[in-house]
Amino acid sequence: MFSWLRKGASKPPESADRAADTTAEIVLDFPRRIVRPDRSVVVTVHAHTLQRMGQAIPCWTYYTEGLMQWGHKEIVFTLKRRPQEAVADFPGMPVTFLQFIEGVAKQGMTVSAGGCTWIGPKTPLLGFTEILYVDPLPQNDLPAPAAPHLRMLLLREIEFTAVKAFGFSRVLSRLGAAYRYYPFPEWEDLDRPALPLERTLQESLLSRMSGMRDVCSDAYCFIEQDGHITLRLTGTARKTLSAALAALPADTIFTIFTGRDPTATGWLVWEPGDQTPGGIIPPNGGNARMAGNFITFCPNDEDMATVKEDGFVVLISPASFASLRRAIEEGRQFSLVPVKGNRFSCY
């Protein structure tokens, strides 16, 4: 079914700096807690070394503490240290930005996984003007924050454009494929090149498809080894999609940009020119459950589900779509066994 499965491998892109072996480096005076008298949010900076892809990657990781009092999840940001940078010389700009979020949170403006911030060219963050927030990844060398939190990633301009066009999961899966690291690097490399997304923006099926679209990070879609396609709804996804479907005009194409299913054993990746689906998998993963990045429902006389690019398209009859909508609203499972194509379920 899949043309290639790229496992987490031993080296990142050639443009990424080869980190010196810092496993024996002595890190003094860390972690550091940074407090401003005019802010209640504390930022703690850790200096540590990630062991990834057979390499030692020296990093600083910034944790916030205090955003939850304003209803905003805490933020974690990991920055790869360049070879010429001393461990004590961590950039202060992320601290300033993270503490700035407190003022925004006080006004009731919060962000969730899949959300973005555009900060503009006049006040870039470490040279970047776009920020993406994602669910946290395990980082076993540091204690995880006790409070619910998000991971902050920096995006190049074309990557931000692609997030707006296709949702955040497609960009993250491409980033993981570029680094040959599953699911994607949790550290920020300021010297990495932008992902080559120009052709994707021009040639993707999603660029040519009209209709309504919704980003739902609590919804997950995947395909199992037997070809069974599933849409799994967690958290607030059922409520979000029920509201979207209630407002959906008849005979309208509907696309859901989903999150990466944490139970998946791999992740679909698509690039222009791929004739069959491909993906990335972790060293101990496989194609038993491959996460997709979107699912599109297209009105049709007959039912059929199939893999397209790095997601799924479900051709669905009016009667079947009405049943799906009722099942989502009522919290029931829905199954479709079409004459052609793959089996489809939603729960």
Task: Write up this protein.
The protein has 347 residues and is α/β, with parallel strands linked by helices. It has 2 domains: 9-196, no CATH class; 204-346, Domain of unknown function (DUF3480), N-terminal subdomain (Gyrase A, domain 2, 2-Layer Sandwich), CATH 3.30.1360. Helices cover 20% and strands 32% of the residues. Strands 1, 9, 10, 11, 12, 13, 14, 15, 16, 17, 18, 19 and 20 form a 13-stranded mixed sheet that branches. A 7-stranded mixed sheet has the order 2-3-4-5-8-7-6. Strand 12 (266-269) and strand 13 (278-281) form a beta hairpin. Helix 2 packs across helix 3. The two termini are 24 Å apart. Mean pLDDT is 90; it is low at 1-26.
Please give a handful of descriptors for the protein shown:
13-stranded mixed sheet; 347 residues; globular; Gyrase A, domain 2; alpha/beta; 7 helices; 2 domains; seven-stranded mixed sheet
Rg estimate, integer Å: 21 Å
Low-confidence stretches: 1-26
Overall tally of structural domains:
2
Distance between the termini: 24 Å
Structural class: alpha/beta
> What percent of residues are in strands?
25-35%
- How is the main sheet built? 13 strands, mixed
Number of helices: 7
Shape: globular
Order of helices and strands: EEEEEHEEEHHHHEEHEEEEEEEHEEE
Q: What share of the residues lie within helices? A: 10-25%
How many strands in all? 20
Mean model confidence by pLDDT: 90
